[in-house]
Amino acid sequence: MKTILILSLMLVATVVPGISQEANAAAPETYRVKMETTKGTFYIDVTRSWSPNGADRFYELVNSGFYNDCAFFRVIEGFMAQVGINGAPATQAKWRDQTIQDDPVAKSNLRGYVSFAKTGAPNSRTTQIFINFGDNRFLDGLGFAPFGAISQKGMKVVDALYSGYGEGAPSGRGPSQQRIQQEGNQYLKQDFPRLDYITKATIVKN
């Protein structure tokens, strides 16, 4: 079961990483992101020293508005909630090969910690992130480096995200990452109407 979950954290196979690069600009050493969602609001407190390239990329994406109207397309009870495929295919296409260098894993994937998803290849992180529901430290050795954390109060909102669709296609009945990238939120709203969304993500503390 763990093997299936790990493989599913890897980005869809059709996402071919391009040339790995650093994020455009360095983020502050610490910053806070307000995540307004269809289930309520929570905050991600980011510490750059935990994962410098990850923190820089997240800062860049939030400031660009990338996460606005992004669906939590894969929510596995007891494991994690995954988000970060833009609902507009043209926007997603601009980012899909904008990979960043891996960071050493400085913190464990424990409840409330937030990491980037990646492919099985080195230096393949792009835009997708996941929030750990429980103790997932078995992911540490696979290179999933947390860059931020959510308080226990905030995790009450994350715990409420709709998880009824389960694992994504093709191994489950949930959304296909490939189809999200090709068809965007139109596909999700038509076929998976109960999914929750980030309505707005903003930097609120530098």
- How many domains, in number, for the residues? 1
CATH class: Mainly Beta
CATH superfamily: Cyclophilin-like
The proportion of residues in beta strands is: 15-25%
Rg: 15 Å
How large is the count of helical segments? Answer: 6
Secondary structure category:
alpha+beta
Strand order of the largest sheet: 3-9-1-2-8-6-7-5-4
CATH architecture: Beta Barrel
User: What value does the average pLDDT take?
Assistant: 91
Q: How many strands, which pairing sense, and closed or not: the largest β-sheet?
A: 9 strands, antiparallel
Shape: globular
Number of strands: 9
Order of helices and strands: HEEHEEEHEEEHHHE
Oligomer: single chain
Poorly predicted tracts of residues? 11-20
Would you give the CATH topology? Cyclophilin
InterPro entries: Cyclophilin-like_dom_sf, Cyclophilin-type_PPIase_dom, E_coli_cyclophilin_A-like
GO molecular function, one term: peptidyl-prolyl cis-trans isomerase activity
Keywords: Isomerase, Rotamase, Signal
Organism: Gimesia alba
Describe the 3D structure.
- One of its GO terms (molecular function) is peptidyl-prolyl cis-trans isomerase activity.
- Residues 1-25 form the signal peptide.
- Its EC number is 5.2.1.8.
- With 206 residues, this protein is of the alpha+beta class.
- The chain has one domain: Cyclophilin-like (Cyclophilin, Beta Barrel), CATH 2.40.100.10.
- The chain has six helices and nine strands, in the order αββαβββαβββαααβ.
- The chain has helices at 2-9, 52-64, 89-95, 152-159, 177-183, 185-191, and strands at 30-37, 40-47, 70-71, 74-76, 80-83, 113-116, 129-132, 146-150, 197-205.
